[in-house]
Amino acid sequence: MSKNRFVPSLSLFLLLSLLLAACGGNTPTENESKGGNNELAAEQVLHLAADQEPPQLDSAKSADGVSFTVLVNTMEGLMSINKNNQPTPAVAKEEPDISKDGLTYTFHLRHHSQWSDGSPVTANDFEYAWKRALNPKTASPYAFVFYDIKNAEAYNTGKASADDVGVTALDDHTLKVKLNQPTPTFPAKVAVPSFFPQKQAFVEKKGNKYAQEDDALLYNGPFKLTNWKHNTSWEYVKNEKYWDADNVKLEKVTWNVVKDTATGANLYNAGKLDVTLLDGDFASQYRERADSQTVIGSSTAYLVLNQQNKFLHNKKIRTAIATAIDRKAFTEIVLKNGSQAAYGYVPPGITGDEKQTYRERVGTFTSSTNPAKAKKLLQEGLDELGLEKAPTLDYLTDDTELNRRTSEFVQEQLRTNLGLTINIKQQPLKSYLDQIQQNNFDLAYATWGAAYNDPLYFLDVWLTDGPYNYPKWSNQEYDQLLQAARSANNIDTRLNKMKEAEEILIEESPLVPLYYRSYSYLWRENVKGLIRPPSGPMFLVKEAYIVQ
């Protein structure tokens, strides 16, 4: 085996371009030091805010942005994503060896990577963690990201054993991974928190309490979690056992739960926050300030329509709902933060080929807002179902201020344009996740962002057995098109199959795309090196520092 950066076939060479932006096609935002005073401040403490606490921090089970934010700053995988959105060695000491057929990856681990208890991070910790995530008893919502690995899906679905899975610790510092087919995005995938290591003895000792508190975790990243006061606040402190601790300047990062923009802006203006998220009127009010920044995201927010609901199972009614919502007005009236109205599912910025984004290659969907058409479709759907009027629909969302205003806008649009009665059910994030995963909703708000830069990462959500296919939508042609895209031997075929699949998705409307997310912030100019990726974790703080 030799260290290959080139995979022989033309199609795989082109697919390699997908890796170049790794976790999102857009560039992350960073307050770089350009002139001025670059002398470090005496106190290296950063003050941040989140609108929720992490529901839980077991990397095998986490599936939300807040949890991912904590994990990527306190843990580390074989690779990590750098400020240029490129996968770079982390616990792995170098790029992996790749076999000539592209099916076998061999990772060589750093000999001085340690857990926060001083014990070494080994290849066995990765093998154990990956197989634990795939164990059907774990019920990991992110198990699908491992399916490139030989027999991973078979084990996860009860058709093979853990020993059959193509991941093996050859020794303490060598991990061999066998894939089903060449997957140039694999080095980027192993930077996702689901691929982080876990120390078996520690996990088993903690049992059901593992990852439920800050002292029920071991950390191998630049920081350790501490002072976790549920629903209120938590902190990171520098991890002196981290292999690259000499290059970590911050001593502490404080996090407070701030659910509304007004409170965040007030805390920022009072000097109690160094960065705060803005939307709505506050985004407009502060847009021209020197300390205002906007990040163009790589994620889509959308409305989910439960297919287990007889009323919403009717295609004409789903299309009526999609046609009734004025998404452009929503971005202009509610968000005001640079987000774009969405009519397709895959957001701008996701790579299509070596020269163009996916949206540039396959085209965009146009606005479908038409209240008159929506009313006609609704009536036709009611007639087909033998109903005189529509039932009241429950709308599930979490309890942040922005999502409250989002749900109220959708509620009013559907009332005004269709006469529908919508009952909004706002829940804390943990309860929201439990209910949406249990299919306990009629309508629900959801978002999906790029953990790695591939349109399939978005489109795979809607496969019949996809764990994030919350509405339980199923379309055999859609499934077949994505399988054809996955096995395509040239980039044009791959893109065309994905385009056809997305057209079916939008035509069938098990979801209504609402907007492609952007983020507006107030961001102190003395905060340097703090990275806001286009999607996924809110911030990467390893390289951050404070200047005078």
UniProtKB/TrEMBL annotation:
A Pfam family the protein falls into? SBP_bac_5
InterPro entries associated with the record:
Peptide/Ni-bd, SBP_5, SBP_5_dom
What's any one GO cellular component for it?
outer membrane-bounded periplasmic space
Tell me where in or outside the cell this protein is found.
Answer: Cell envelope
Q: Name one GO molecular function term.
A: peptide transmembrane transporter activity
Q: Note the superkingdom of the native organism.
A: Bacteria
Its name, as the record gives it, is: Oligopeptide transport system substrate-binding protein
